[in-house]
Design goal:
This protein is α/β, with parallel strands linked by helices. It is about 50% helix and about 20% strand. Helix 4 links the parallel strand 4 and strand 5. The protein is globular and about 60 Å long. The structure holds ligand C2E and magnesium ion (3 copies). It comes from Thiosulfativibrio zosterae.
């Protein structure tokens, strides 16, 4: 009896695992097909600089979505992890970059000022020698200067192979790209490496912003990150700003640029065009 139960249990478990594996395989192949069919759509979220109470657009972050024919609009959390595991993130990010760069070039043609375009760099992408080559050739094709692109990398990405990352980032800086650390404060940061990195900007992670200004730890961390960024001569941006109170705290403490639902959610290109036209 015990043995039979055990076997049933084993069979049940095995079936469940098979099911999971099949779902994964199905998702992986549909992700692969979606890249071929270019079912991905880049959304754009404004980054606002506030000086003397006047907000102006300083740039846009490109954020990918998957327009799935059956499931609708999927957010990065639903497919980026699998794309990273399978290496499909490389062709996927090429699509994102191409779509975003051709879009900003169209805005240029229309006389709309989009500022600086931020692109998220996937893990391992930094280690690829061809990354800067592909990006530079896409920019050349559309006539967009590297100086108008900010690359967002994470601390953990850099710390995986710091010497190699530093070399790559220096190369990208030499080509004109800006470099920002995304989700700053959530990774394994080494302050001694931070000093050696060729950075332009720190993005204060939204987990510190969420409970401002009430949470004492978060107020202390946010102030410390701002002081650190300033002492290293970096620009700062706070992400995940949803309320006037959060914005007030951030501005009061010396960071003048914010990104978050308080100003705008990430928008499809057509809606972003309307917003840019209204500002022009
Ligand atoms: P991230 O680069 O840190 O992007 C910021 C995320 O915060 C975005 O989520 C954005 O929609 C969200 N966000 C912005 N303002 C607010 C706010 O006020 N409140 C809240 N609750 N959230 C806010 P999203 O678009 O779901 O992207 C999640 C992550 O997926 C990104 O985090 C980035 O790491 C990754 N990702 C997105 N697009 C791409 C891409 O094209 N390529 C790569 N490699 N990664 C991407
Ligand atoms: Mg980002
Ligand atoms: Mg972030
Ligand atoms: Mg992130």
């Amino acid at each position: 009896k015990a043995k039979a139960d055990g076997r049933n249990h084993y069979q049940f478990y095995s079936q469940e695992m098979t099911q999971k594996a099949l779902e994964r395989v199905a998702l992986e192949s549909s992700l692969r097909a979606a890249i071929q069919k270019k079912e991905f759509e880049v959304f754009y979220q404004p980054q606002m600089q506030i000086i003397n109470g006047v907000a102006r657009l300083s740039g846009l972050e490109a954020l990918v979505r998957w327009r799935h024919p059956q499931l609708g609009l999927l957010s990065p959390a639903q497919f980026i992890p699998l794309a990273e595991e399978t290496g499909l993130i490389i062709p996927l990010d090429r699509l994102v970059m191409e779509q975003a760069i051709s879009q900003v070039a169209q805005w240029d043609t229309a006389g709309l000022d989009w500022g600086v375009l931020s692109l998220n760099v996937a893990p391992h992408q930094l280690e690829r020698e061809d990354f800067s080559v592909v990006l530079a050739s896409q920019l050349k094709q559309y006539g967009v200067a590297a100086e108008r692109i900010m690359l967002e990398v994470t601390e953990s990405q850099i710390m995986q192979n710091p010497d190699k990352a530093i070399a790559m980032l220096k190369q990208l800086r030499a080509l004109g790209f800006g470099i920002a650390i995304d989700d700053f404060g959530t990774g394994y940061s080494s302050l001694s490496y931070l000093k050696k990195l060729p950075l332009n900007k720190l993005k204060i992670d939204q987990s510190f912003v969420r409970d401002l200004p009430e949470d004492e730890d978060d107020t202390a961390i946010t102030r410390a990150v701002i002081a650190l960024g300033k002492s290293l001569g970096l620009s700062l941006i706070a992400e995940g700003v949803e309320t006037a109170e959060q914005q007030h705290f951030i501005l009061q403490n010396g960071c003048d640029t914010i990104q978050g639902f308080f100003y705008s959610r990430p928008l499809p290109a057509a809606e972003m065009s309307v917003l840019l036209s209204a500002k022009a």
